[in-house]
Design brief:
The chain has 236 residues and is of the alpha/beta class. The protein is 45% helix and 16% strand. A seven-stranded parallel beta sheet has the order 3-2-1-4-5-6-7, sandwiched between helices. Helix 3 links the parallel strand 4 and strand 5. It is globular. The model has no long low-confidence stretch (mean pLDDT 95).
């Protein structure tokens, strides 16, 4: 498939974000990624941005618009964790994660919407997590920020659904990344036991769902939460 639509993936320099950017490059889109450091995949334009800083995002979007055109497909993927049990969690631990994961999505989507509304076409894809609705000890901040994306996508759908703009959530489960590879083998085995599929997912499997949501095949899907978790969350 080939398309000349412009895609922007935040946090596209590693992990799931990078796999999503690679998939869009492979499918023939014009792709840009934001990164605080490092580079996106070959064939993608890398722009420097911090999703907690509106001015840096505005500059990044302006650069993408000048070099590639208006962003028509936005994948809000950038996120952080600061895991610790609630009783030990500082206000900063909570605020930093919510400001990046939820506030960052708000800032990038808001900046992208003007062009989408003008074009009467847009795909907003928010990368959440199975943890958002499943819950996870030590992740009150992260789970809160990720479950909030569901209300975000559904409210945006009600506001802009009639303008050719869809807004959906992808909720990955345990995916093979550098982060999961560092877990002790016993912990990995414990997690695998809870997953009906009996294995971790691959970044490519998340990327395939994002690419499908961006396609014409998914034009009538909005406000949906699509799990990519081997059955762990059972459709949450």
């Amino acid at each position: 498939m080939s398309t000349d639509r412009v895609v922007l993936v935040t946090g596209g320099n590693r992990g799931i974000g990078r796999a999503i950017a690679e998939r869009f490059v492979y499918d023939g889109y014009r792709v840009a990624v934001t990164a605080r450091s490092g580079e996106g995949p070959e064939g993608a334009l890398t722009v420097r941005a911090d999703v907690t800083d509106s001015a840096s995002l505005d500059a990044a979007f302006t650069e993408v618009e000048e070099k590639l055109g208006n962003v028509e497909i936005l994948v809000a993927n950038a996120g952080i964790t600061k895991d610790t049990l609630m009783l030990r969690m500082s206000e900063d631990d909570f605020d930093a994660v919510v400001n990046t994961n939820l506030g960052g999505s708000f800032r990038v989507v808001k900046r992208a919407l003007k062009g989408m509304i003008r074009a009467r076409f847009g795909r907003v894809i928010l990368i959440s997590s199975v943890v958002g609705l499943y819950g996870s000890a030590g992740q009150v901040n992260y789970a809160s920020s990720k479950s909030a994306l569901v209300g975000f996508a559904r409210s945006l759908t009600r506001e802009l659904g009639a303008r050719g703009i869809t807004s959906n959530v992808v909720a990955p489960g345990f995916i093979e990344t550098d982060m999961t590879a560092e877990l002790p083998e016993a912990t990995q085995a414990e997690y695998r036991k809870a997953i009906p599929a009996g294995r971790y997912g691959k970044s490519d499997e998340v990327a395939g769902v994002a690419a499908w949501l961006a396609s014409e095949d998914a034009a009538y899907i909005s406000g949906a939460v699509i799990p990519v978790d081997g059955g762990l969350g059972m459709g949450h």
